Amino acid sequence: TIPVILDVDTGVDDALAILFAVAHPGLDVLGISCVAGNASLERVVQNTLRILDAAGAPDIPVAAGARRPLLEPARSAAHVHGEGGLGTLRLPPSDRAAVPGSSIELMRSLIEASPRPITLVALAPQTNLALMLRQYPDLANNIERIVFMGGSASVGNATAVAEFNVWHDPEAAAIVLDSGIPTFMYGLDVFNRVGVAEPTASALLNGESPLGRIVGALLTNRIMLGADRASEYSGLIGDAGAVCALVDPGALRTELRPVSVQLAGYGRGQTLVDLRLHPGEDIVHGLHEEWAAVEVALDVDAARYERLFLDTLGLS
Ligand code: BDR
Ligand code: CA
């Protein structure tokens, strides 16, 4: 099994990712760290605890981290994830609470105690990871790699060019990419393509299985998106695809590419990915700044992840 820590901003598709991660026998979810992003920190913690209850996995420690990005105020994503963060899904309150102390301390203790290097799975703005790596840089020695949902080598969503998680805290993403720890980018190029087909999602929503109804509600979430945007998001498994990448990397085409997080101007939050086949003038003339080398997912066998997702949850 792969020992993992999830960093989440639950979040409709973070919820799908948590359900998938705790159900997959190849993953050992040691803890979950929460950050403001898709919803406020308080909501994210509550949503995460409720989803773990629904998954029947209540022993996993959950901790609260940063309530805002490093430099900017937190910005609402209620137009995508609803006021509560789980769209139209309503779950009973959890009896459990977050563990005392910040999620940076939870991650630190889990990483230090692990006999094997840990994989960090970041499904949210990377504020917690950046704070942790700044405060405890030596933890990098026991981190295998950081797999993150974020960025794009093509289109954005938060802006025309920036993906939400990186856009929400670009400095944090830059710190993480520059940390020297191997990083794997599951960006919009693949994120936007992996989903459960509409008839299946609707059948789950209206079916008998309690877990299936939750998954169906999350997949068919249409919070205030309006008819045209609803189709953009409907059925996507979103962050759960980044967890699929851990257990079935063979469904992805990836390339090790130079990546730079843009911090200024309209491009703020964009991940520039150098896809050139040959060095250009900037490199030839020594004008190319230091860019991070990132393994970037560029293509995906979407049907394979759809099957993996449903099979793992016992919903096929
Ligand atoms: C990312 O931002 C959030 O909306 C999702 O949970 C995902 O992590 C997509 O840009
Ligand atoms: Ca997320």
Residue share in β-strands:
15-25%
Round the mean pLDDT to the nearest integer and report it. Answer: 94
Profile the largest sheet: 9 strands, mixed
Physical arrangement of strands within the biggest beta sheet:
3-2-1-4-5-6-9-7-8
How is the topology of this model organized?
Elements: E1 2-8, H1 12-23, E2 27-34, H2 41-55, E3 62-64, H3 78-81, H4 103-113, E4 118-122, H5 127-135, E5 143-149, H6 164-168, H7 170-177, E6 183-186, H8 188-191, H9 198-205, H10 210-219, H11 226-233, H12 239-247, E7 252-261, E8 271-273, H13 281-284, E9 292-300, H14 302-312
Parallel strand pairs: 1-2, 1-4, 2-3, 4-5, 5-6, 6-9
Antiparallel strand pairs: 7-8, 7-9
Bound molecules: beta-D-ribofuranose (BDR) and calcium ion.
Domain Inosine/uridine-preferring nucleoside hydrolase: 4-305
Organism: Cryobacterium psychrophilum
Keywords: Hydrolase
